[in-house]
Amino acid sequence: MRHVFLDHQSSTPVLPEVFDAMKPFFTEAFGNPSSLHQHGLRVRDALKKARQQMAALIGADSEEEIFFTSDGTESANLAIKGVAYANERKGKHLVISATEHPSVINSIEFLEKQGWTCTRVGVDAEGVLKLDELRAAITPQTVLVAVHHVNHDIGTVQPMREVGKVCAEKGVPLYVDCEASAGWLPINVKEFGAALVSFSPHRFYGPKGVGVLYRNKKARIVSMMHGGVQEGGRRAGTENVPAIVGGGMAAEIALPELPKRIAHTAHLQKRLWDGLRSKITYIKLNGAEPGPKRVSTNLNLSTEFIEGEGQLLLCDLNGIAVASGSSCVSKSLKVSHVLGAIGLDHALAQGNIIMTLGMMNTEEDIDYTVETFAKIATKLRGMSPMWDEFERGIIDSVIAPTGRGKSFSQHAAEVSGKAAH
Amino acid sequence: MSDTYTLYNPTVMEHFMNPRNMGDIKDADGVGEVGAAACGDIMKISIKIKDGKIEDARFKTFGCGSAIASSSMATELIKGRTIAEAMDFSNQEVVDALGGLPPVKIHCSVLAEEALKAALEDYMKKHPEAAAKAGQAETVAA
């Protein structure tokens, strides 16, 4: 059976060059970078090099603006809580987009319980931030604006320059979560007008266990992890040296390869979406069409009348690894908040599948996926009461309404006695 | 990868991949369609009754792997049971027969129980005499 990995948003394999760069730091170069002897000093140099590699990837001026954490979530927590606590006396208001990653949203929810307030700025049907709403949301008490570069669910690319301009006009620092874009799209902290940027190398062929936080002088932060004076006093704890070295190498490899990565994945993205929509009826691409508003690695699909987890399981049984934002896949039994924010009907959110491409995917992989996914949709529709009821005119399609029958949501509410959420 | 890892146990996976009694019964004696408010899944069970017993049961499900497996197992379990026995059917039987479900997926088995009971209620609405008989049987059994 063919194995097709279409979940590069979750993680990527470590490149052989990256793994080779890491190896000595497990064994002979095992020193603690805080030590003042040869073992420590050697490792300290390696960390400096990794900071330079990270700085280069995002167009930062100096490696002194790069801080290492354990992962993207920790970087997001430090960016948000660190700025909030550092500016408590100035104001206790934050602004985020409605479609941020849970590491951002849940950090905000924690602060809201501690007395901060937050305005969530809406997005349009493609997931693009509403700039006029952003401008209106910022108050004299606002200490931070957080907007992701590329959406983790639907791949929407945000207008970062415009967002940065609004923040600069208002004099509020901007934090940009680049988790879904680093290593796949050019990032320039100066063009974005960003005071803080986070990303993690395991999304672009580096190892897990390291996150990056860029911070310039526009943003004051306080430490959230207390202990020794590592990372300029901003993040206590012994650095994960092998992962940092590997992450730096992954960044160094990514930077000159970006055009090739974009070309490769954009080609496969088009082939995959064209194939799926020609083979499967009542299928919808959530977010923007492939192009400048959508990252080339992402397809977020809703196949009507069938549920996402069943699709995911059957893909997996056929060797295809995908993700889903359906409530059945989530541990909280809630559909992805991103799909809610773009106004996607609950029925379509339930049938959600996320496919994210990478460099190892081939045209043959894509053709196999199209063929297999079409069979899966047919199999699950054969088992679905909704498909049968659609064919009999009892319920209507959301994607291509026929004008016959009631909506799926109305039907679902009637049979469950409660409105779907 | 040499090993295969699965989200559910082998019994659940087997029922998901090869569901039993999938489909609709033409001229069913009772049809029940229910939805789970918690997750949005929808399950439909249709039954054929002969001589006071469930002769046939089929399902259609819009839902996750465990919802499909639960409806497959529920229809297997209830075939051959009397109406009174079927009215006592509990989701726990489905969970046990499937060798357990993850805690977050127990509601899938509840949905199967509810769909079956909705189908039985539909049947009894159409056949009040059977309902009276089933009620008597229940009283005797109690």
Give the secondary structure arrangement, pairings included.
The complex is a heterodimer of chains A (421) and B (142).
Chain A: E1 4-5, H1 16-22, H2 38-57, E2 66-69, H3 72-86, E3 93-97, H4 102-113, E4 117-121, H5 131-137, E5 142-146, H6 160-170, E6 174-177, H7 189-192, E7 196-199, E8 211-215, H8 241-279, E9 283-285, E10 298-303, H9 308-317, E11 320-321, H10 337-341, H11 346-350, E12 352-356, H12 363-383, H13 385-391, H14 408-416
Parallel strand pairs in A: 1-11, 3-4, 3-5, 5-6, 6-7
Antiparallel strand pairs in A: 2-8, 7-8, 9-10, 10-12
Helix pairs in contact in A: 1-8, 2-8, 3-4, 8-12, 9-12
Chain B: H1 10-17, E1 30-35, E2 42-50, E3 53-62, H2 65-78, H3 83-87, H4 91-97, H5 106-126, H6 128-141
Antiparallel strand pairs in B: 1-2, 2-3
Helix pairs in contact in B: 1-2, 2-4, 2-5, 4-5
Overall CATH architecture of the largest domain in chain A: 3-Layer(aba) Sandwich
What structural class do you assign from the helix and strand content of chain B? alpha+beta
Order of helices and strands of chain A: EHHEHEHEHEHEHEEHEEHEHHEHHH
Structural class of chain A: alpha/beta
CATH domain class name of the largest domain in chain A: Alpha Beta
Main pleated-sheet profile of chain A:
7 strands, mixed
Can you tell me the CATH superfamily of the largest domain in chain A? Answer: Type I PLP-dependent aspartate aminotransferase-like (Major domain)
Structure annotation, total helices of chain A: 14
